[in-house]
Amino acid sequence: MEVRAAEGERSTHVFERWEAGLSEAYVPLAVSPGGEGEFSGWITLGKYKDCELSTLGASRQQVRRTKSLISRTDIELLHTTIQMSGRGWLHQDGRVAEVGPGEMVFYDSTRPYHWEFEGDWEMASVQVTPTRLRDRAGITAGDIPTATTVAPGSPAGLVAGYLRDLAVLQNTSPEQAAVLAGSAVDLLASAISLTAGRSVTGEAAETLTRRRVMEFMRRHCTDSGLTVDGIAAGCGVSRRTLYRLLDQFEDGPATLLRRMRIELACGLLTARKDLPVVAVAHASGFATERQFYRAFRIETGMTPAAYRSTARLVG
């Protein structure tokens, strides 16, 4: 859904359409403008077995969930949003969470809340029913730390990155998003527990550790000296545990590291056509040009120069 002011349309009518769209996508809400000027807003929504994923954005505004609006429906949802751009202030349960890019926050549709946005903003959003959370992870409404900002660098922030990427992925690859959405509830439960100061155990803990390992590898993949032992030490796990966490990859972490580096190299070959291949190799974490060529052929079936030429023709 996309809402923009048509020529000659009154701003009140635009907000009425936006309010109706938000209320249909989520729960009944009241929206009011945050200032003068042209308004626009959009929502992309996907529904899966255990959760709903969406990306949305709009101009400055205030969004309210009041007691009277709550009484209109018996829908119960836990909202989890990850800010992608702009900044917002969430008010619920006597607390105010300031949420900036990369930060996450939880709030409950069964209690009043309101959002304030002072400029243009975009966010990813996950909706889960409290029943699903209780059945999957034993989490009740009283366990949820509402209106508490989760920083991107925190343990729970790793989940924020995953959920944001998943919500964005459905815009281009809904089939892949549907497959990955199955782990969203378990990861969300982990993030809630960690934010509330409780430990995470079992399958959820392993999923979270795997995510932490992959984030570490992505951050450090340009280091040509990064080794399997270095990854294990950096993530605080044993070498054996590291291989078990990444057992879906042949040769484990070495294969994943190679793929991350080639993915980065492909981006550089396309975006920086003036950059020599040897420079691309070093910038992507390869110690030698020969090592780079070999890895590139394994992952793409062609040479870096051929890939760059193909990308140029497509572009």
At a glance:
With 315 residues, the chain is an alpha+beta fold. It has helices spanning 11-25, 67-70, 130-137, 155-169, 174-180, 184-195, 202-220, 228-235, 239-245, 253-271, 277-283, 289-300, 304-314, and strands spanning 2-4, 30-33, 40-47, 52-58, 61-65, 78-85, 88-92, 95-99, 104-108, 113-117, 121-128.
In which range does the helix fraction lie?
Answer: 40-55%
Number of E strands: 11
CATH topology of the largest domain: Jelly Rolls
* Oligomer kind: single chain
Query: Which strands sit side by side, in order, in the main sheet?
Result: 1-3-4-11-6-9
**Regions with little confidence, pLDDT below 50 for 5+ residues:** none
How large a portion of the residues is in β-strands, by DSSP E? Answer: 15-25%
- Pairing-aware structural class of the strands and helices? alpha+beta
Give the domain tally.
2
| Largest sheet descriptor | 6 strands, antiparallel
CATH architectural arrangement of the largest domain: Sandwich
Give Rg in angstroms.
22 Å
CATH superfamily heading of the largest domain: Jelly Rolls
Could you tell me how far the N terminus lies from the C terminus, measured between alpha carbons in angstroms? 29 Å
- The sequence of SSEs as H and E is EHEEEEHEEEEEEHHHHHHHHHHH
Mean of pLDDT: 87
Query: Can you tell me the CATH class of the largest domain?
Result: Mainly Beta
- How many individual helices? 13
